Amino acid sequence: MSTLITNIAELMTQDLAHRVLRDAAVVIEGERISWIGAAANAPAADDAVDAGGRAMLPGWVDSHTHLLFAGDRTAEFEARMAGDSYSAGGIAVTMDATRRTSDFDLTRLALSRVDEAVSQGTTYIETKTGYGLDAEHETRSARIASTLADQVTYLGAHLVPAGQDPDDYTDLVCGPMLAAVRPYVQWADVFCEEGAFTAEQARRVLLACREAGLGLRVHGNQLGEGPGVQLAAELEAASVDHVNYLADKDVDALAETWTAWDSAAGAGRRGTVATCLPACDLSTRQPLAPGRALLDAGVQVALASNCNPGTSYTSSMAFCVTTAVLQMGLSVHEAVRAATYGGALALHKDSGNDADGERAVGSIAVGHRADLHLLNAPSATHLAYRPGMPLTYAVWRAGTRAR
User: Fold this and answer.
1) Which of 150, 221, 316, 345 is the most buried (most CB within 10 A)?
2) pTM value?
3) How far apart are alpha carbons 120 and 317 in whole angstroms?
4) HSE value, Cβ hemisphere, 13 Å, CA-based, for 259
5) Distance (Å, whole) CA 220 – CA 383
6) Could you give the 3-state DSSP secondary structure of residue 261?
7) What confidence tens digit (pLDDT) does each residue in 348-387 have?
8) Backbone phi, then psi, for 138, in 5-degree steps?
9) What gap in Å lies between CA 165 and CA 167, rounded to an integer?
């Protein structure tokens, strides 16, 4: 079954050539994109959709979420808005509520969040464990997450539960807990921050997880300058996320990881993506991550929602893109690229086509997964020009119309 989507006013491909096509068309066959080009040259297809002069983007790739949770932290948010500072301790509130929630209800809540994200144009989603914080509940979270997210990250090293010795808990994260979650996850993450895990503890976790065959990610430099970015660069983590407080040496270390990457060819050794989480920055009243400086230094940047109950209870990638343009100094094209191709790069899903059966996401090209986001606007510029407006008109996820 093939579908021709025609009369696209602006097609922002986010492919390696950064093409933006006018009066364009796309053909979907099954889960894949089989053709793109000028609408006047479009081939015949089994079905046709008239885009009505609207703009099309790749579906958003949300590379950092925490969707498996129960409970509410409104009081914490209100206190923060009244002047309290954010600390990692609020995670324990969500841990208690999540542990008390049944598998059925935890799955139902997470699926509703996935549905919200997809309805706003997100077509590829990573999510993390991290609200179980013992072997039983982390394994449960990983198992449930594997049924509803595209990729799952093990975040047993989110916080040391109250009353536990930090080194003993780190041993658990590196040993029995890791072994239990391993069948369900592709990545490992650690919250390397004051009040969470020290650099030494974080290193132990990351090395153990790498030995177990997992890719690496780091929560780093969210609450102040610290070791997270340097550790991520040293261990060749796929991404370091938050990156609010960066010294020059941190930017340089991240830039150095990209020196063997050919961005024009999309080939070479991937470096460490700097994932900016602007919705979280606004909610915690932290300085916005220096996305402009990172891009100018040659660092590949992603934007993600960080959807979670404590610091960023939104899955709106459009809001993150708007904020990046209006407050972080990115162009519309750069912000959209960070929220699509950048997220795919952070998840190592930026390449792949019919030849290898691992179809890329985050860009519109022949052979890539048909993840498409049609805006109710003639250009992507409207995402920043009309902030906060519900501009998602239609969504295709792996070739199936999801909205």
Assistant:
1) 345
2) 0.97
3) 8
4) 7
5) 29
6) strand
7) 999 987 767 789 999 999 999 999 999 999 999 999 999 9
8) -65, -40
9) 6
